């Protein structure tokens, strides 16, 4: 592959430096800046180049960190494929000795692999896809999700159930993303798509607004999703209310935890974990698994870490999410629990899609919300949800309603399932 950048040092000179340093038995760069492999055993043009180039060494260390996280988040049944892919990538990187500009080729190899792993393992906040309608395959869903934060910029092209990660390439006009067998060239709202030998011309499908705005009601933020105004958020200063002495009696939280469909080795996510009120009891039910306590407020996560330091269950891991992304590993979570928090999500569609991605096929979401249908539940209107509303919103993100438990005094116990 021929790759050009503004850096164009003579390769012969770089290799002379590398060979001189290695033959002298000295480290070409400081140990802290060295790549992850042993430079004394460096084999071939590319590895020797990496050992004397601080930028390439830094990329090597960065890839090692990203790859380690990807291994943790990758679906268990596909880890062997990921490892094989990494070995294949190393071989491809080392083939850069054939390029006219070896340094540029190696740089691109690292950058594209890092972006590939970050996107594939959910290390980046998910991008909102742009939808297209393509001539000849009008009934097939086609979308492109653009990631401007990667280097080089990347785009995930989805055609039906298949996906490909592409990278920005040079173009006379518009944005052209390529990968072996795939080219997506966007220009002024139109997409020229090449998909493994077939070519399509596609037009942009105007996005339907997910949210509407209105004048905020007393306890709302004025943002409306599927006919429901989103409520205000309880901040970390309300942590004491979550731990109030009468909560177990009022809400029968003990019964709630017992009824969760958990196995001892499950991976569980507690979304809106707060102080860990449910995270730690769930951790006791999954002694061979782990609980991912997710919150968007670091102050709440600090409380959980303090409880762990005081001897609480060690298999609880804190995760700092965002308003649009729970930052959970894709396809690895067996059960997600959301207790009295979903109605506060500022971006329920984006959060819901992130949760759906995180669930393994057959995984479940348990949603606990105060019953809006019951006039006896003395909770502010926007802090309650009806069963019908909850089902509609979960169906919008691809989850199937399984059942609703009625054993809690004031709340729905709604169970949803991700299709196999």
Q: What is the percentage of strand-forming residues? A: 25-35%
- Biggest β-sheet, characterized? 8 strands, antiparallel, barrel
For the record, give the distance between the C-alpha atoms at the N and C termini, rounded to a whole number: 40 Å
- What are the low-pLDDT stretches, counting only 5+ consecutive residues below 50? 1-28
The helix fraction, in percent, is 25-40%
Query: How many DSSP H or I helices?
Result: 12
The beta-strand count equals 19
Structural class, judged by helices and strands? alpha+beta
What gyration radius follows from the Cα positions, in whole Å? 25 Å
| Residue-averaged pLDDT | 87
Spatial order of strands in the largest sheet: 1-2-3-4-5-6-7-8
Q: Which outline best applies?
A: globular
Question: Could you characterize the architecture of this molecule?
Answer:
With 420 residues, the chain is an alpha+beta fold. It has 12 helices and 19 strands. It has an 8-stranded antiparallel barrel. Helix 9 links the parallel strand 12 (267-271) and strand 13 (290-295). Helix 1 (11-23) crosses helix 2 and helix 3 (54-73) runs parallel beside helix 5 (102-120). The radius of gyration is 25 Å and the shape is globular.
Brief summary of the model shown:
By secondary structure, the chain is α+β, with helices and mostly antiparallel strands.
């Amino acid at each position: 592959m021929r790759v050009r950048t503004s850096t164009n040092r003579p390769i012969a000179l770089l290799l002379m430096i590398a060979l001189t340093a290695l033959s002298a038995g000295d480290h070409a760069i400081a140990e802290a800046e060295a790549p992850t492999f042993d430079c004394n055993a460096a084999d071939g043009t590319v590895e020797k180049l990496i050992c004397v180039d601080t930028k390439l060494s830094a990329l090597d260390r960065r890839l090692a960190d990203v790859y380690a996280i990807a291994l943790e988040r990758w679906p268990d049944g596909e880890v062997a494929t990921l490892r094989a892919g990494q070995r294949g990538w190393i071989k491809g990187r080392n083939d850069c000795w054939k390029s006219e500009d070896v340094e540029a080729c190696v740089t691109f190899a690292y950058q594209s692999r890092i972006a590939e792993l970050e996107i594939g393992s959910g290390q980046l906040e998910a991008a909102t896809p742009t939808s297209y309608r393509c001539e000849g395959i009008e009934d097939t869903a086609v979308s492109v999700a653009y990631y401007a934060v990667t280097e080089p910029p990347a785009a995930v092209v989805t055609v039906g159930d298949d996906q490909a990660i592409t990278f920005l390439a040079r173009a006379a006009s518009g944005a052209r993303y390529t990968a072996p067998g795939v080219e997506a060239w966007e220009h002024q709202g139109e997409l020229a798509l090449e998909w493994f030998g077939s070519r399509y011309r596609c037009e942009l499908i105007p996005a339907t607004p997910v949210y509407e705005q209105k004048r905020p009601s007393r306890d709302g933020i004025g943002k409306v999703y599927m006919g429901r105004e989103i409520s205000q958020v309880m901040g970390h200063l309300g942590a004491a209310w979550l731990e109030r002495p009468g909560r177990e009696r009022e809400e029968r939280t003990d019964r709630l935890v017992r009824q969760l469909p958990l196995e001892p080795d499950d991976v569980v996510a507690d979304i809106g974990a707060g102080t860990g009120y449910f995270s730690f009891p769930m951790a006791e039910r999954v002694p061979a698994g782990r609980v991912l306590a997710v919150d968007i407020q670091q102050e709440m996560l600090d409380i959980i870490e303090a409880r762990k330091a005081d001897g609480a269950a060690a298999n609880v891991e804190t995760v700092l999410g965002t308003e649009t992304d729970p930052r959970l590993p894709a396809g690895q979570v067996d059960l997600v629990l959301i207790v009295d928090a979903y109605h506060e999500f500022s971006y329920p569609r984006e959060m819901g899609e992130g949760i759906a991605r995180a669930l393994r096929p057959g995984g479940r979401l348990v949603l606990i919300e105060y019953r809006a249908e019951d006039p006896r539940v003395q909770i502010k209107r926007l802090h309650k949800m009806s069963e019908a509303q909850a089902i509609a919103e979960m169906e919008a993100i691809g989850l199937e309603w399984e059942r609703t438990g009625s054993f809690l005094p004031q709340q729905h116990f709604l169970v949803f399932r991700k299709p196999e």
